[in-house]
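Recall from the previous lesson that a structure prediction takes nothing but the amino acid sequence as input. Here we apply that procedure to ATP-dependent RNA helicase RhlE from Limimaricola pyoseonensis. The sequence below is the only information supplied.
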Amino acid sequence: MDFDMLGLAPRLVSALAEQGITDPTPIQTQAIPHAMNGRDVMGLAQTGTGKTAAFGLPMIDRLLKSGGKPGPRAARALVLAPTRELAKQIADNLTAYTQGSHLKTVLVVGGAGINGQIKRMENGCSLLVATPGRLIDLLDRRAIDLSKTEFLVLDEADQMLDLGFIHALRRIAPLLPKDRQTMLFSATMPKQMEELSKAFLTDAVRVQVNPPGKAADKIDQSIHFVAKAAKSDLLTELLDAHRDELALVFGRTKHGMEKLSRQLQAKGFAAAAIHGNKSQGQRERAIREFREGKVRVLVATDVAARGLDIPDVRHVYNYELPNVPENYVHRIGRTARAGADGRAVALCAPDEMGELKDIEKVMKAAIPVASGSRWDPVAPEKKPGRGGGNRRGGGGGGGKPEGAAKPGRPNRRRRAPRKAA
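The prediction returns the following tokens.
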């Protein structure tokens, strides 16, 4: 099957061909026909499977065929994403798909000047891509009107739940017209997703290409059982074996990953870090230099790294295992993209055996052991007194896990949803 057979407008098929996109992926083949017929869609697929085109192409096709212009401050279609990086990636893709048409795409995310975003929305837009926190800011300022929005997409919905955006989504839902088409895409199905789907979807068709928790087949996974204090040296040794290839290193905390990136730089690696404490400009520059090969090792937290689509990433290192087991699949899904092969290496300290058990339960498979042997289960550490004691967080430094939450549950903090995403 090709895109012509899916019923897309010829100009849209031509725009895809110019980008070298000719064959739809499985999620696109399943989702696009239902979306073209106006059905609400719940799509389950891992990262890197072409979800942006799965919701973007039918939405653009219907906008092109219906004609019309948005009113002041209005958005005909709204796409919500959990992180700045993913939102920008989506906006870039939608802009490429609509090249040469009258459709206008606007991106609004935290970390960028809000006044400029307000100005760009004065005359409205066809496609608005936003993070929930910044969208709430603009709604509070009456800079955006959602009363005429025809299409709504929630991308990486499970991550939005993990980051505590459920409250923002509850505020946004009543502002949208009931007579709209909604598409929800997610890599996993936490329990709270049912509440989300009931609030946003109507008589939705469910499409699924990979079982939740299943990693891409072309990823060569392995795990090293190593003491926390020895992680940095082992990572250096592993990275040294492929200095000319791109590698992503994931950890849990902003402070820890910043410290680790500086340690790698001191050892001669072209390394950079992205996390929630970095400005939007710093994050975009690091990703651009990583994509161009000027930076070979990108050190990241889960919050900053969701949505990275860089085909040349050959290696992913889990320097610290994630607190949310599904995030392991998201992390290693940054490699083996576009049909390429990739390697995913995890480093497991004794106090991370609980995380490993949860990950392997979600994946329904054990990760092959590269060195060491499984640690005996460790009882939860007591909070250290003034005398010190080991802190969780790995050799890269301690700190509070960025975006940490239990699967399917938002962070229970008595504060407004994050605005930095």
